[in-house]
């Protein structure tokens, strides 16, 4: 699993504002789902998957655009996706959070709640 994600992340486009960007096709591949599943999640969770934070539009031509997912977007998507890899991703994130907590005896950086 970790190797699969590493292969995909090597194809990411570096981005100063978002660390990296990935097209929907690679995000779908990483989570083992179809591109339409990713688009469906984007629509279904539009209150949590926010333009400019989790995804951005890149103009391609004639008024068309391509959706690119940010690092935060790839992580947030993993919380919604119901696939084997989605579950594996959630297990991985849980392990990372608890590992940090156990090492430092403090929860990860304080979360600030903001109404949108």
What features would you describe in this structure?
- It is a single chain.
- This protein has 116 residues and is an alpha+beta fold.
- The protein is 47% helix and 19% strand.
- It is built from five helices and four strands.
- Strands 1-2-4-3 form a four-stranded antiparallel β-sheet.
- A hairpin with a 3-residue loop joins strand 1 (13-15) and strand 2.
- Helix 2 packs across helix 3 (35-44).
Q: What sort of overall outline do the alpha carbons produce when their principal axes are compared?
A: globular
The SSE order reads: HEEHHEEHH
**Number of contiguous helices:** 5
Mean pLDDT over the residues: 86
Helix-residue proportion: 40-55%
Strand content: 15-25%
Number of strands: 4
Sheet with the most strands, sense and barrel status: 4 strands, antiparallel
Q: Strand sequence of the main sheet, in spatial order?
A: 1-2-4-3
Rg over C-alpha atoms, rounded to the nearest angstrom:
15 Å
Helix vs. strand class: alpha+beta
* Low-confidence runs: none
What's the number of domains? 1
Q: What is the terminal separation in angstroms?
A: 34 Å
Keywords: Plasmid
Write the layout of secondary structure elements.
Blueprint: H1 2-9, E1 13-15, E2 19-23, H2 24-31, H3 35-44, E3 55-61, E4 64-70, H4 71-78, H5 84-104
Antiparallel strand pairs: 1-2, 2-4, 3-4
Helix pairs in contact: 2-3
